[in-house]
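Q: what sequence does this backbone want?
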């Protein structure tokens, strides 16, 4: 059971995350129906872009940030067996982020921030939106500090001992998120906010997109890391096995931190204001960042194989059948890895400079990130929720069967939604459109995939509702939760000693800073060295 001090903190974060999620899922359903062109009564550009902006912000910023923070507090307190560094500050960060979310939501719902979740200028939102987004991010910086300081306090009291992996992973994620979010923070504070307040007439879109690209790639690892931490620490144990290699997990986390941030130009391949040489360098770096995902796929699969064999699985594949597929977090883990293999493959296509021109700004990209974010990452958020809920509420999960139905329907719904999107992208359908009133013979060939997309949207919305129902009903469930013992997987080889670099983040923070200066220094400085032209605001 989780101690009472942490319980409320974690539950508060998780509930904000999941309520934002279910609202966003409803908007998603509206969007697939609207953009299919099959329901003329629903068609409205204004509503569509308002909806898709709210959907993106709720999923990409609110669900993720609150979930990552809640999970970090959970892991810190459970893996170290002591309270977090400063509980008052954690609550302060929570409220700041919540107020920021509410401000951004007002702007979004009143149609003053239909700028999509990337809010690229010259699209302009009301200052309320930029201020709200800033508060959300600043609130999360307190969490970053909590993760690093909680780890440091534990290390001081346990000199020379390896920091528990779940804590280490969250300290890496806190560091990663802090450095990652600086790009967008600079963009909002020095460009978008003064411009939306009327203090500046125009904005340099090249500089803005460069700063946003600093954040845009690594933010995806901030979303992904809670999933990877659970895959390494919770899933092997729940499957009845051990973690194949604790060191490998640390190396993967560190690689995500070091290689994940300085490579954002793969979002700018088709943009004219950065030179091809810099894009080529960022491409090379992008390929490096696939390595930790391969390490993760290998290590987690090996851990599952250990579990399957310990459970009596025989032969080449018998261990797969022997895994406890009925256990929600194990099921989520397996589905997550399967979705990662296809979503990651798409990522490699995107990252290839020349092939990117085939898919950039098409529906393929939307397919890629729904598969790997809403699929791989978010399905683990569900698995984690089912796992921690009894430990937080002290009551059993309302229905494990419903949880399984929910996880399967989410994975299937995501495949039914995103495979057609990949196909539509290859057939030339642009992303970020509400209607296609042109080239009817071409549009006619999209029809089947458009219908499948709606079916996917319906399945996913039902699945989202099942999650909320199950979690809410669990608060009133009868009886006491049956949870006992340590919940984090032991490594197959006991971890006696670790080099300092695998037991802390300070050194890697410096490495990231140097790598960032090399890969972003001149590309940012050039905007101040050459004559640039500003853009006037535009809104939908
Ligand atoms: Fe991405 C665009 C490249 C990972 C999210 N990505 C996006 C956008 C989002 C996003 C949101 O290079 C859209 C941004 C926008 O709105 O403009 N992405 C990559 C690469 C990776 C990658 C190289 N992306 C992610 C993750 C995300 C995410 C993770 C969210 C969580 N992405 C791009 C690029 C673009 C892009 C370009 C820009 C496109 C454009 O033109 O606009 C890599 O990290 C992926 C590495 C992963 C692998 C998979 C390895 C895993 C395997 C699993 C094996 C399975 C097993 C099964 C063993 C290489 C092989 C076991 C089974 C059992 C039964 C036990
Ligand atoms: Cu990226």
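A:
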């Amino acid at each position: 059971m989780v101690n009472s001090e942490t319980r409320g903190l974690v539950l508060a974060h998780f509930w904000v995350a999941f309520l934002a999620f279910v609202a966003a899922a409803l908007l998603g359903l509206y969007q697939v129906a609207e953009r299919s062109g099959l329901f003329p009564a629903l068609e409205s550009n204004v509503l569509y872009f308002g909806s898709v902006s709210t959907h993106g912000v709720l999923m990409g910023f609110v669900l993720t940030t609150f979930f990552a923070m809640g999970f970090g507090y959970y892991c810190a307190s459970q893996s170290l067996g002591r309270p977090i560094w400063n509980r008052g500050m954690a609550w302060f960060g929570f409220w700041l982020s919540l107020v920021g979310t509410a401000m951004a939501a007002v702007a979004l719902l009143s149609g003053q921030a239909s700028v999509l979740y990337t809010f690229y200028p010259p699209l302009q939102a009301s200052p309320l939106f930029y201020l709200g987004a800033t508060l959300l991010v600043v609130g999360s910086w307190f969490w970053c500090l909590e993760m690093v300081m909680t780890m440091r306090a534990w290390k001081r009291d346990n000199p020379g001992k390896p920091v528990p992996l779940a804590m280490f992973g969250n300290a890496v994620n806190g560091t990663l998120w802090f450095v990652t979010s600086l790009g967008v923070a600079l963009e909002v504070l020095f460009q978008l906010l003064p411009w939306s307040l009327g203090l500046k007439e125009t904005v340099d879109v090249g500089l803005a997109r460069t700063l946003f690209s600093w954040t845009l790639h690594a933010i995806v690892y901030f979303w992904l890391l809670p999933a990877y931490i659970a895959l390494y620490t919770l899933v092997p144990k729940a499957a009845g096995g051990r973690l194949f290699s604790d060191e490998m997990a640390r190396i993967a986390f560190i690689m995500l931190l070091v290689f994940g941030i300085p490579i954002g130009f793969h979002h700018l391949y088709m943009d004219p204001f950065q030179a091809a040489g810099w894009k080529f360098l960022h491409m090379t770096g992008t390929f490096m960042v696939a390595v930790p995902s391969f390490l993760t796929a290998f290590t987690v699969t090996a851990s599952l194989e250990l579990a399957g064999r310990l459970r009596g699985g025989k032969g080449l594949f018998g261990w797969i059948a022997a895994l406890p597929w009925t256990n929600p977090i194990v099921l989520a883990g397996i589905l997550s890895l399967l979705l990662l293999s296809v979503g990651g493959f798409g990522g490699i296509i995107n990252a290839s400079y020349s092939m990117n021109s085939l898919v950039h700004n098409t529906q393929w990209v939307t397919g890629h990130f729904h598969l790997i974010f809403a699929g791989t990452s978010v399905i683990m958020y569900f698995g984690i929720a089912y796992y921690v809920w009894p430990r937080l509420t002290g009551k059993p999960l309302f229905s494990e069967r419903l949880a399984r139905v929910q996880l399967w329907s989410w994975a299937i719904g995501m495949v039914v939604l995103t495979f057609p999107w990949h196909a539509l992208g290859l057939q030339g359908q642009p992303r970020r459109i509400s209607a296609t009133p042109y080239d009817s013979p071409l549009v006619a060939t999209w029809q089947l995939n458009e219908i499948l997309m709606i079916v996917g949207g319906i399945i996913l919305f039902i699945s989202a509702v099942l999650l909320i129902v199950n979690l809410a009903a669990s608060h009133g469930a009868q009886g006491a939760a049956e949870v006992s013992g340590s919940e984090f997987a032991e490594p197959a080889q006991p971890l006696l000693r670790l080099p300092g670099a695998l037991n802390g983040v300070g050194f890697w923070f410096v490495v990231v800073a140097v790598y960032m200066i090399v890969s972003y220094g001149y590309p940012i400085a050039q905007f101040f060295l050459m004559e640039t032209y500003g853009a006037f605001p535009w809104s939908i």
